[in-house]
Amino acid sequence: MKKQPEIKKTRALKNNLYCVRLMWDISRGAVIHAGLMTAFNYIAWVFYSAFFIKYLVGALNRADSFSDIFRYILLAGGFFMATAIYYAYVEGAYIPMAGVKVYHKLYRKLYQKARNVELRCFEDSSFYNKYTLAVDGANEKLIQVIINLFGIICGAIAATVVFTQMFHIDKTAVLFVFFPIIGNFVFGYIYNKYLFNRDRAMAPYKRRIEYVNRVMYLADYSKEMRLSNVFYLMKYKYLKAIDGIFDVVDQYAFKINLPLWFRNYFTFTIIFEGVLLYGAYRTIVGKTMSLSELAVLSSIMVSATWILIRFAENILESMKQGLFIENLRTFLEYEENLPEDYDGLTPEPEITSIEFRNVSFGYKKEEYIIKNLSFRIEGKKSIALVGHNGAGKTTIIKLLFRLYDPDEGEILLNDKNIKEYNLKAYRSLFAAAFQDYKVFALSIKENVLMRKGTPKDDTLVIEALKKAGVYDKVMTLPDGINTNLTKEFDEQGAQLSGGEFQKIVVARAFAKNVPIKVFDEPSSALDPIAEYDLYESILKDSFGKTMIFISHRLSSVRNADMVYMLEKGTIIEQGSHIELMDLHGAYADMYQKQAKNYLAVESLREVTA
Ligand SMILES: Nc1ncnc2c1ncn2[C@@H]1O[C@H](COP(=O)(O)OP(=O)(O)OP(=O)(O)O)[C@@H](O)[C@H]1O
């Protein structure tokens, strides 16, 4: 596992300030209230432990009247009652509302960014990790960062005030403060460091356990779990992971316990016992400290200890949060190489040519999947890309859609490099059905239109579903085209077969009136007859348009104007079906090997027609 690099202190500070700015932009009120709330908390703490008790002891010594003391207490009580009301309002009403606002605004930023970064980012595991870590509970963490930051500031001020008070009573007693400082900042730091390392060492085992967890409850795996012995394999992996966690706990047990013991000893025992012993000595033996001073000193000491503990916790927490902020910041500040909102020329709606000119491309640098590829499609033609698995067919489509840019060469539309076009306008020239199709937890109509739609769109949707050969099935569903797909949000949502889902996805391409249609193995989940019918529909629909399709079933490409046969990212044969058959090359060979099946399907089609 790759280690996350350590973040420098200055960077950590800048990251915290970045969070304050971000939060300030999102909700100024939340920042102000978080600051006030923390401040009131500390004021109450310091007041009661230092000033209140000091006043009371002083008043008793001075023999002030009860009404004076009562007035003072009433005043203080009134003030803190008001802060308690404020506190309750902020905690109970304001912060939850602000939390929703922060959630809404922050996630809008995050989703916008996720939508905008190039696809390559999602294949970069470190970027993807950053994204998931940044998104996970980002709003709560952001608020926590702010509260923490105010905790550090107020903690530092409160600590200075109580130590000054201690100093006034007894200069030597202040020295005891070093014990909780050492306890928290030295042993606490060592303890947290080991804790962090232990968690990191556990992480791979925890990931395995989480994976087994997922496998146990996700429906996708339930069939295999029941029909094979993979359950026992999973159980074995799970037990191995548990053993791994035991080992790690064992390995760190002593390392963690020792600094923890020292931390607690220095933080509580030495200062509590020490100050009391010292105070008692000065009061009883030395007679240099009054009983009231001893009482005030003990009270201040307790609060000083807790203030220091909180202060140290805030600092350690802030260091921990540094990683989260770093991820959030890297993600939000990432400058896209291929921004989705890239502006440029508006393409002509009439397509005269598409050209790949000496295009090379690799998902990884220097590992080209597409190698010096050149071809030109003139006018409104139907083009088929064929070839073995992994030849690079889908990659060509991804390059054409500008989901990636070529490493070398250029792609031209109407003789202009596609990089010159406004990206949204350029992509709106295409309608596509991908082989790794995805249906959304939306209605069938919305899944076809990929937008909200109005009643006027119904005819369009119905026509598209008919062309895709799934309309009859949709009509059997309770709400027809308005039936929700999947049970994600709707218990009555329709769960269709793989082939039916694919047909709905293909209907998307039929419903879009655009000059270029792309079908990437649109029939991979269809039965042979449905596949035959679908290709008939595709060819009919693409009349007067440019159509590119990928298919492994060569019978479906026979009517294409041009067929490109690919191997290892280059075109090895090109021409019409007849020309390629006459060539007696790789295409003809592949076709003949599949031919028996086509004949069978065609005769079956004739029988069932
Ligand atoms: N996102 C990706 N990251 C890294 N490598 C990839 C990625 N997508 C595809 N590849 C690799 O690129 C090569 C070409 O893949 P591509 O999907 O273009 O092939 P294809 O001809 O469409 O194959 P198939 O017929 O199986 O769909 C494959 O070897 C694949 O492993």
Automatic annotation (TrEMBL):
Transmembrane segments: 31-57, 69-89, 145-167, 173-192, 265-284
Keyword Transmembrane helix: yes
UniProtKB keywords: ATP-binding, Membrane, Nucleotide-binding, Transmembrane, Transmembrane helix
Membrane topology classification: Multi-pass membrane protein
InterPro entries: AAA+_ATPase, ABC1_TM_sf, ABC_transporter-like_ATP-bd, ABC_transporter-like_CS, P-loop_NTPase, Type_1_exporter
Gene3D superfamilies per UniProt: ABC transporter type 1, transmembrane domain, P-loop containing nucleotide triphosphate hydrolases
Keyword Transmembrane helix: yes
SMART domains: AAA
One Pfam assignment: ABC_tran
Compartments, record wording: Cell membrane
ABC transporter domain location: 354-593
GO CC list: plasma membrane
Gene Ontology molecular function, alphabetical: ABC-type oligopeptide transporter activity; ATP binding; ATP hydrolysis activity
Main location, first listed in the record: membrane
Protein name: ABC transporter ATP-binding protein
